[in-house]
């Protein structure tokens, strides 16, 4: 890496030239950086808004899952079988599924070698269990903080390798140049948040042959979110340069605590806590689920099943399924503006409408699980102490004592299955731009729990392999770089100066963020209304253009947030455009959301006709295609439906593969 200076509007700005710039400090970004060095490309730098501030280091559940190829026992498995199960989730390209499956064992054992404490038995078997949408017990876990352990071990390796790190640098824009008929990424612009008050506004330029984008999903789009509060997302700057998004309709939602953001899956539900709702001031406490379930046995079993059927799934609503609970929590919190809590201190009561809770009322699946766990006794908190004491300790460490107080929850955005399009080497349609991790939309409609962690590790590894093999050129000469980015840099610097106005209202930018979040939660969350989506799209674009022209902040300290809110506004407009297009093509309920449909079925009689919906079918047009969406050179939204690529059936004859490998014909 080389540091020089460039001049813009009479001011000198630092310019760092490097072969590969890795943006982000999560597990996927680290995987890319580490493997780049291992593959021989040592000219690498990491730039991050906040070291350890993303989802990898700040997310988890009662038993956070990592999904991998089965590596123990006598259950038959193979990469092709794993690929088939990933592919079966719908709207996932088969070659991507195969890459994630083939790279699974290598990525997993890399983490093991770095010290992630995945459990194994005395014979060295890394045993597994079933997770959601998983038929073969491929899941493993290092406990509630699996991804945090991954972050810590990968970060330690990044430090050991001596990879330069630019902390407190918020990347706000990407630069491109045209080569023939294609756009190539050539670098980025960041704000040094420790130098915002200087005359350069903290602008730092990066001149790079390759850009690895590992900034995570756009968690800041939603009001109800289990993403870390500091992770708003950076997808908009990729859309702004013409990067193609795919499957943007597909996000994953589930129940999570909101005071401390954490998924309440697994044991938190399997101990069968009491669900209560109150007015905003805590008055009028009610066990609201009793109004919708016919018996305590059905109700308690649905709560139990919510443990490993945690993501909201419209297929699990009918016949008083576990996902009916998500709809009822949504109705209480979003529609009725009440608050909902899990109370572990008492067993559910029938409140005069149903029988009070008793173990013998449970359906066999729930009863047998608790019996085998030695937990057919006591209150929910006593059962949780028996089955998973660390789950209690986790909340206590974050100021919430489950033995003394109820836990406030909501239906929250948890993961984005869609994102930027990438090929089998995780390269975008913008050449030399490699989105890895959640920002890359490799997943389809349904995905096995924990597969995102595997995808991020494999994607980072494959991107690094391609870069090291094919994109080893030096970055542009600094003068040539400035010529390519001068016009855009001039506009960005002008906007950064104009947006700061000392008399501006202090909370204006945060109100704009709140407007984005409320719009996405209302129109792009688990309930999507065809009658209202057009209005939501129009409002989103109006806000985006208003922000670019009229946004003002009172201090330069708010400049990173101003850039980020504009980025997020563009992102949510593109996501809403995708939802509108899906509905216009006849799309029905699937994945983790409901499309309201007057011709559909009522999820349960007590909810009424307003909640009718129909499930998507495999024969539907939208089930057989993937929606791609992007901005053209004039800033107009373009959309196309593309065929889903099948799983490749390659010639696996050893001598042929060996010859291709020896002649360097693998990385193409």
What's a quick, concise take on this entry?
The chain has helices at residues 27-38, 55-58, 79-87, 94-102, 104-114, 146-161, 235-240, 267-270, 296-305, 324-335, 364-372, 380-387, 389-397, 451-470, 478-498, 508-523, 533-550, 559-584, 654-662; strands spanning 2-8, 11-23, 44-47, 65-67, 139-141, 165-166, 169-179, 182-192, 203-213, 245-246, 251-257, 262-263, 274-278, 339-343, 407-416, 419-420, 433-435, 527-528, 594-601, 625-631, 637-643. With 668 residues, the chain is α+β, with helices and mostly antiparallel strands.
How does this model look, in words?
By secondary structure, the protein is of the alpha+beta class. Among the domains are: 253-414, Flavocytochrome C3, Chain A, domain 1 (Alpha-Beta Complex); 503-621, Methane Monooxygenase Hydroxylase, Chain G, domain 1 (Up-down Bundle). Helix content is 34%, strand content 19%. It has 19 helices and 21 strands. It has helices at residues 27-38, 55-58, 79-87, 94-102, 104-114, 146-161, 235-240, 267-270, 296-305, 324-335, 364-372, 380-387, 389-397, 451-470, 478-498, 508-523, 533-550, 559-584, 654-662; strands at residues 2-8, 11-23, 44-47, 65-67, 139-141, 165-166, 169-179, 182-192, 203-213, 245-246, 251-257, 262-263, 274-278, 339-343, 407-416, 419-420, 433-435, 527-528, 594-601, 625-631, 637-643. The strands form five sheets. Strands 1, 2, 3, 6, 7, 8, 9 and 17 form an eight-stranded mixed β-sheet that branches. A hairpin with a 5-residue loop joins strand 20 and strand 21 (637-643).
């Amino acid at each position: 890496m080389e540091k020089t200076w460039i001049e813009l509007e009479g001011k000198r700005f630092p310019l760092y030239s490097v072969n590969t710039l890795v943006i982000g400090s999560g597990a996927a970004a680290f995987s890319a950086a580490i493997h780049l060095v291992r593959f021989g490309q040592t000219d690498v730098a990491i730039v991050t808004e906040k070291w350890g501030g993303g989802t990898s280091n700040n997310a988890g559940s009662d038993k956070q899952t990592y999904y991998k190829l089965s590596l123990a026992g006598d259950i038959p498995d193979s990469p092709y079988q794993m690929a088939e199960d990933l592919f079966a989730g719908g709207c996932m390209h088969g070659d991507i599924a195969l890459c994630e499956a083939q790279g699974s064992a290598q990525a997993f054992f890399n983490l093991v070698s770095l010290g992630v404490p995945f459990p194994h038995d005395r014979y060295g078997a890394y045993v597994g269990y079933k997770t959601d949408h998983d038929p073969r017990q491929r899941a493993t876990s290092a406990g509630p903080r699996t991804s945090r352990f991954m972050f810590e071990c990968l970060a330690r390796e990044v430090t050991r390798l001596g990879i330069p790190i630019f902390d407190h640098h918020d990347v706000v824009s990407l630069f491109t140049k045209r080569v023939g008929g294609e756009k190539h990424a050539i670098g980025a612009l960041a704000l040094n948040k420790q130098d915002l008050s200087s005359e350069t506004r903290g602008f730092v330029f990066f001149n790079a042959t390759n850009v690895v984008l590992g900034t995570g999903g756009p968690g800041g789009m939603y009001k109800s979110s289990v993403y870390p509060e500091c992770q708003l997302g950076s997808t908009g700057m990729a859309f702004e340069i013409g990067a193609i998004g795919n499957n943007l309709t597909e996000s994953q939602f589930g129940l999570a605590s909101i005071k401390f953001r954490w998924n309440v899956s697994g044991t938190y539900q399997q101990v069968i806590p009491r669900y209560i709702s109150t007015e905003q001031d805590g008055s009028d406490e009610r066990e609201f689920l009793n109004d919708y379930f016919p018996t305590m046995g059905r109700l308690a079993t649905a709560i139990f099943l919510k443990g490993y059927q945690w993501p909201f799934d419209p297929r699990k609503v009918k016949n008083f399924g576990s996902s009916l609970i998500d709809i009822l929590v949504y109705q209480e919190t979003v529609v009725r503006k009440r608050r909902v809590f899990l109370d572990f201190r008492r067993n559910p009561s029938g409140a005069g409408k149903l029988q009070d809770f008793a173990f013998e009322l449970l359906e066999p699946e729930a009863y047998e699980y608790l019996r085998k766990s030695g937990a057919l006794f006591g209150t929910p908190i006593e059962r949780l102490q028996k089955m998973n004491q660390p789950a209690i300790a986790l909340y206590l460490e974050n100021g919430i004592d489950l033995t003394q107080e109820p836990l406030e929850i909501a239906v929250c955005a948890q993961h984005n299955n869609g994102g930027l399009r990438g090929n089998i080497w995780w390269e975008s349609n913008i050449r030399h731009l490699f989105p890895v991790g959640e920002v890359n939309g490799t997943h389809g409609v349904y995905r096995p729990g924990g597969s995102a962690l595997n995808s991020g590790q494999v994607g980072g590894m494959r991107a690094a392999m391609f870069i090291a093999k094919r994109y080893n050129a030096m970055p542009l000469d600094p003068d040539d770089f400035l010529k390519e980015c001068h016009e855009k840099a001039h506009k960005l610097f002008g906007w950064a100066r104009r947006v700061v106005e000392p008399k501006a209202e202090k909370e204006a930018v945060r109100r704009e963020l709140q407007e984005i979040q409320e719009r996405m939660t209302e129109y792009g969350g688990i309930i999507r209304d065809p009658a209202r989506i057009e209005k939501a799209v129009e409002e989103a674009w109006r806000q985006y253009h208003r922000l670019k022209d009229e946004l003002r902040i009172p201090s330069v300290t708010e400049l990173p947030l101003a850039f980020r809110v504009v980025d997020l506004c563009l992102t949510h407009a593109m996501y809403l455009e995708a939802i509108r297009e899906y509905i216009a093509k006849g799309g029905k309920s699937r994945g983790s959301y409901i499309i309201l449909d007057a011709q559909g079925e009522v999820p349960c009689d007590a909810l009424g006709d307003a909640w009718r919906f129909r499930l998507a079918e495999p024969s539907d047009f939208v089930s057989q295609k993937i929606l791609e969406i992007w901005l053209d050179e004039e800033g107009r939204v373009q959309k196309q439906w593309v065929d889903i690529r099948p799983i490749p059936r390659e010639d696996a004859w050893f001598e042929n593969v060996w010859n291709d490998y020896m002649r360097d014909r693998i990385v193409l």
